[in-house]
Amino acid sequence: MSFRFLKKRKPPFYDAGRIPVHIGVIMDGNGRWARKRGLPRSAGHKAGAEKLRNVTEWCGNLGIKYLTVYAFSTENWSRPSEEVSGLMSLLIEFLEKYEPEMAIQGVRLRVLGDMDSLPDNIRRALDNAVQRSVNRQKMQLIIAFNYGGRREIAHAARKISEMITQGTITPADVSEDLISDNLYLPDIPDPDMIIRPSGELRLSNFLLWESAYSELWFSDVLWPDFSEEHLRKALEDYIHRDRRYGGVKS
Length: 250
Ligand code: IPE
Ligand code: IPE
Ligand code: MG
Hints:
- The protein has about 250 residues and is of the alpha/beta class.
- Helix content is about 45%, strand content about 15%.
- The chain has one domain: Decaprenyl diphosphate synthase-like (Undecaprenyl pyrophosphate synthetase, 3-Layer(aba) Sandwich).
- A 6-stranded parallel β-sheet has the order 3-4-2-1-5-6, with helices on both faces.
- It is globular and about 60 Å long.
- The two termini are about 35 Å apart.
- One 3-methylbut-3-enyl trihydrogen diphosphate binds near residues 31, 32 and 76.
């Protein structure tokens, strides 16, 4: 096999040292996608869930280790109740339907969010799916559900306050690392890149603490239309970004 051939098959963004370890995705635009087709919003959410299945596989093949997807925010409770219950049912359906292929693909599932205020059946379904997948090694799919960045920071603050009250630490021990260690999933590294389709240029309360130095990538594409080409373009852009973290270029 010639070097030239190898190079053609493996463009630079496949280089394991350069691709992001962790990508966050704000899966937005399902409603507009459905409206454009004269379909109910629920059809957009269904198409969005199918897209998540594809994107998980593409990320796994590209060697991305962590994929965090924003599926339901703490603010999404303000939607009409039929839409909210449709999103809850869709989550359960997704967890059941894709369990066999996530098992084959080595996808470990995690959940990120306020589990305590979810209905019992949703929490149980999530717990089961997480437990079943605990030994899978290829990648982690982190579903942000009933997630809000501010609620997560408040949760960390509460845990830290309890430690102070119990006398295990003093206020002087409160550091950036201690806050990171008390977020919902402290073992997951901060996202290298956050992708938001649908044309909105905001984070909508997604990973507020963790995104301090994430590269942001926006596109007008609606989530159900997001393609492997969009993902590759995002990765290609990412590897050309200069991540200085406040320093100067060496
Ligand atoms: C994202 O799509 C899915 C959730 C927020 C659950 P939207 O439902 O927000 O779609 P648009 O933004 O209305 O198009
Ligand atoms: C963000 O999308 C939440 C999810 C994708 C789950 P929204 O559609 O809820 O956000 P806004 O209202 O445009 O900020
Ligand atoms: Mg939206």
